[in-house]
Amino acid sequence: MSLPVSVVIPSYNRARSLYRTLLALHYQTSPPNEVIVINDHSSDDTRLILDRLRAKSLNYHLIVIHNRNNAGPSISRNKGILAATQPFVAFTDDDCIPAQNWLTVMYERLDQENTNNNAIIGIGGKVLALNQDLVSQYYDLHHILDPPSSEIYLVTANCMYFRDVLLEVNGFDETIKVPGGEDPGLSFALSNLGYQFYFTQDAVVHHDYQQTLKSFIKTFYRYGKGCHYVTARYK
Amino acid sequence: MEKDAIMSLLDINDVWANSTDVEWSYDTLQPPKLSVVTLHRDLKFHYRYYRMKNIPISQRLLLLGLRLMQRISYNLGWRLSARNS
Fold first, then answer.
1. How high is the pLDDT of residue A150?
2. Considering only CB atoms, which residues of chain B are within 8 Å of chain A?
3. Which of A48, A92, A158, B71 gives a 20 to 30 Å CA spacing to A199?
């Protein structure tokens, strides 16, 4: 039986890893009702891969949106939220592989926590490195993509929200055009309305980190830029 | 709670290194200045942390190199955004 969840994945030039992500969702213990992929004007084989997958019999309904230009993750995710038909929206990335029970754990815990405390409208899970290289080891050692212990923000590699609260804050900040800062920004906007988040170690996503020094530096530069922007905006 | 269990983007501000009971505020995302003193303190702490995790010395040094890169690049991104706002 499928879960009342729409999984939203923005994708840009990662056809191969996107394929793995979509297969991992196919093999979920309880698959989502739908997966919405926003192809952010990729120039690689993303369109071809998506066409092939749509022709196959997947355990979920695959919805594909093609952007006419490279719009960035915020705009892309917002298109996914608008296209979603289910009451729960989960986010992961095209370089992530969710564990088989990922969606079941996220859905059940969020539903349960919201029943106990209706201010809890979002849940995040654990992000572990897929590989054993130095950069991956660094991310794991520093828990870079784990939410802080105070659960003040969630990261889009591994989180789930109620769709109606996402619509209440108009989703992600579309002025952020590159990855970095848009996910804490969303959480800050929701926190300012009095909403809360929950974190579970049991919902795991494996992240395939880019292994070059250049991408490492670029990632943290973007985090710094994005975190300043959202901090200044929501503080 | 173990120290490494509370690390996240917050560790950029090395708040966690001084306290195991981090109280959230937006300021915890703000990186400390890139002074020789703060970098030295941070690298020294991490050298010990990696040793505690039984990481071989050659790898420890490479991880410290990444730590330095993280601190510098995050700080630069933060400053550039602050200047443009």
1. 67
2. 1, 4-12, 22-24, 26-31, 49-50, 53, 59, 62-63, 66-67, 69-70, 73-82, 85
3. B71
